[in-house]
Amino acid sequence: MRGSRRRRSTLVVALALVAGLGATVPAHADDPAYPFRNPSLTVDQRVDDLLGRLTLDEKISLLHQYQPAIPRLGIPSFRTGTEALHGVAWLGETTVFPQAIGLASSWDPALLEQVGSAVGDEARGFQQERPAGWGLNLWAPVVNPLRDPRWGRNEEGYSEDPQLTGALSTAYGEGLTGGDPDHLKTAPTIKHYLANNNEWHRTTTDSELRPRVAKEYDEAAFKPAIEADAATGVMSSYNLVNGRPNTVNPDLNDLVRSWSSHDLLNVTDAAGPGNLHGDQKYYPSVMEGDAAAIKAGIDSFTDNDADSSVTTGAVKSALEKGLLKEADVNEAAGHILSVRVRLGEFDPGGGRYGSIDKSVINSPAHQRLARKAATEGAVLLKNQSGTLPLKTSQKDIAVVGPLADTLYTDWYSGTLPYAVTPAKGIAAKLGTDVATSEGVDRIALKNTATGKYITTGDALLKETAQTPTAPAQFDVSDWGAGVVTLRSAVSGKYVGYNWSGFADDQTQPGGWFVQQQFKLEQQADGSYLLRYAGYETEESWWTNPVYVGPTGADGTLGLVSKEQAAHYTKDVVRSGVDEAVAAVRGKDAAVVVVGSTPSINGREGHDRTDMGLAPAQEALVKAVRKANPKTVVVVENSYPTTLGALQQDVPALLWTSHAGQETGNALADLLYGDANPSGRLTQTWYRSESDLPSILDYDIIKSDRTYQYFKGQALYPFGYGLSYTSFRYGDLRRTADGFEVKVTNTGGRAGDEVVQLYTHQRVSRDKQPLKQLKAFQRVALKPGQTKTVRLKLSPKDLAHWDVTRSKWVTEKGTYDVLAGASSADIRARTTWKVAGETIPARDLTRTTRAENFDDYDRTHLVDESKERGTAVSAASDGAWLKFGDARLGTGAAQFTARVAGSSGTVEVRLGSPTGTLAGTATFGGTASPYTYETVTADLSRAAKGRTDVYLVLKGAGLRLSTFSLR
Q1: 766 contacts 719 by C-beta, under 8 angstroms
Q2: Which of 19, 279, 352, 695 is the most buried (most CB within 10 A)?
Q3: Is the Cβ–Cβ distance between 375 and 106 less than 8 Å?
Q4: Torsion of CA 103, 106, 110, 111, to 10 degrees
């Protein structure tokens, strides 16, 4: 099978001699004459040679994230997993590029490849020192489609569209690899396979994927980078898909490896293997879980941090018990070694990229690239009456808001080598100081019972002050969903819980446990309870909500129950709104920078429960707008925001992600017209959370998710973004390999247009997208300039997954082909008659998998066995499956099905779930949901002709895997 190579467990010297690998046995194990150190040999030859020299224990040692050195062969240690989503993370100061969602908003594959190349260089830059946590196997990019904007990790992905995601991830990956799969700069691993788009109970929630959704949507985002050799493997995700944990998803071997002709190194997410016998309870022991993961296609275990003994011990036990064979270990070790060979590890001098050193890190060229990326990724959402760009004569301005003079980094960010904030960038642009204000209240909290204020100045916060002096004052910032942060007015640092008490010791909210989160809960008497909200989830990380109150005789604050919580008055020492209004009044313009901190209200482990802008921030914008009509709002966050009435109230809106060290310079360039906004949204911006179904509903087709199926009115549609110039589209014409359209810059400024090509299938056997992106191209145009934009599109690009025959099919018919500036702004269109095929009526005389239904109600997709396969389970009595347009001919006499689990019946009905009853099969149940039995039922004479067949399942928990009507 393509991409899978069963390797020999030993190397016979005689065979090596015949192959010309060397005529003598080297005197030392690390002698360069050894074949595995010979770069003139093929990768397979080198790997086979090295595998043959390793003992079984040494091969097993390679299967953990922390691979030890093998001194006798001169092989150094190796580690999988350096984070590199938008720069090298966790190793200190590196170039910090915009978040992945910001990079993607450029719609510029060439830029993504340049950024990927820079990140790859910087990863190599550490190779001479090899600091803890460093490695050349990079865990990036994230290619999970952004199907739900409430996902806590939205910032890590690219788009809700798999076509765009695939194009951008391929470009970024090609930059990381260097473009030659046999000589890798770095070895990127794309994550998280598969259907991983919620954080709520992420290790136990089940993403149910019907075949069409799996093939057309989730898998489609992963395949391009693997197929293009722009990634060297995938990371399995925490969640389950159709009842089976992704750590043992057979796709890893059966499907993902088929996409590449090169060996892939597949890894688990951190602690993923332990979940199999832990909270997932899928296997009874580490041994059985690890063995199953290897057989499914996992090569490297990320578990128990640096302690590899649990994994290696489990693998050895599995070998002893016969759950694994040495060939299984050889296969996994061979995949790992293939990547290490291709990284040049065993080449003289470290291979093609072995000389790169730290001089590349945060180089001037990378700083310029970071500024370009931050500029291209910003999206102009609104520009009423030419509010933007500002004129250089508008120098007397104010930059206000909670993000006006600070930059925030996310969990997977590197350390900023410097920080150009919006205020600093604009000041540098104008060559003069600008007025600033965070616009947040400064408060003091007084215990109503004791009259004492919470104060700083000692190791831990205490209630000591009798008056609200500076040590008793805190800046309170609203980040939405009721969460606020408190920052000491004296130290300028954030207050957080440190497991002993509360201290003002953090420069920014952050860490895995974000312990700088609070909620001020107003009581009926006007007082407030200070609730500790550090790392709360929807169900609370703590057993019960906890609050703040004095717990020591000296007034030291600690965690208490609600009943024990102190009641505080909130004394406003300084009004943030008043200060901001004073700063902007009479100015030439006001720039308000609002948004999020990536550690709060949406991050790994915590989905967003509120899609709106923080109420205090919205109030700030309204007040500033009232004080100065020339107000420009910059929204700096990691996801779509509902924005409420704000979108109507302000004349100009510009969105940016947390865009890294050059954020301020990029914003200044855009606001003052030195750069023309050219970013486009890669997600639908909804008007309300009510536009979305449950975050756990993964069936984008049935639930009408994303721009492809959403029938409502978006706040801003997929692909949207404004420019300071205008563009005219000519006619859309068919070419030999696609379509072309002439685009003219009809405005007075140079600008980039992102030409987007969509299709719509007019008639189909199956429900089709309203529109579907098929190609795009970013084109730069000077004023008055016209360019012909050519976009490739072939009939096979129109294919969808035919569940009746489990194959890709392009249907015969007429397709609308649409070119435009967004999914909702179509400027040119034509039709295309495609000579495809007609999907025939279903042949249910053949054994049909139950998962290949056309519609369903009250069912679940479940694991047919622990190893592979998907079955359908009744969630409640009366669940049904539709198998449309079935050809029963002159009559089907018998219904046969494979069923398991709870007892019940399977009714065969015609035309509808309550239509003519053609037969009923009765099932007595099996002790195990994985033990299947065959049941049959005689069918009435009505079971004939061409009709829709419904299977109605009576009995919750009854499982159906396959059936036929003959």
Answers
A1: no
A2: 695
A3: no
A4: -50
- The DSSP output letter for 163 is H
Contact present, 730 and 710 (Cβ < 8 Å): no
CA pair distance 723, 383, nearest whole angstrom: 9
Q: What's the burial of 136, exposed, middle or buried (CB within 10 Å: 0-12/13-18/19+)?
A: buried
Max intra-chain CA distance, the chain: 93
> What six digits make up the tokens of 20?
């010309």
One-letter amino acid identity for 951? L
Tell me the domains of the chain and their CATH numbers.
Answer: 13-358 (3.20.20.300), 372-438+576-691 (3.40.50.1700), 442-573 (2.80.10.50), 725-834 (2.60.40.10), 848-965 (2.60.120.260)
Q: Any residues with CB less than 8 A from the CB of 48 and at least 6 apart, and which?
A: 7, 8, 11, 334
pLDDT tens readout for residues 194-246? 999 999 999 999 999 999 999 999 999 999 999 999 999 999 999 999 999 99
| Look-up of token digits 């609002």 | 594
Residue of 86, 201, 76 whose CA lies nearest to 139? 86
Q: pLDDT tier at 536 (50, 70, 90 boundaries)?
A: low
Task: Return the ∠ at Cα 864 (arms to 859 and 868), rounded to 5°.
Answer: 130
* Interatomic CA distance for residues 256 and 192, integer angstroms: 13
- Please count the other Cβ atoms lying within 10 Å of the Cβ belonging to residue 89: 24
Element (DSSP H or E) covering residue 751: strand 751-761
For the stretch 483-521, pLDDT in tens is: 999 999 999 999 999 999 999 999 999 999 999 999 999
Phi, psi dihedrals of residue 497, rounded to the nearest 5°? -85, 135
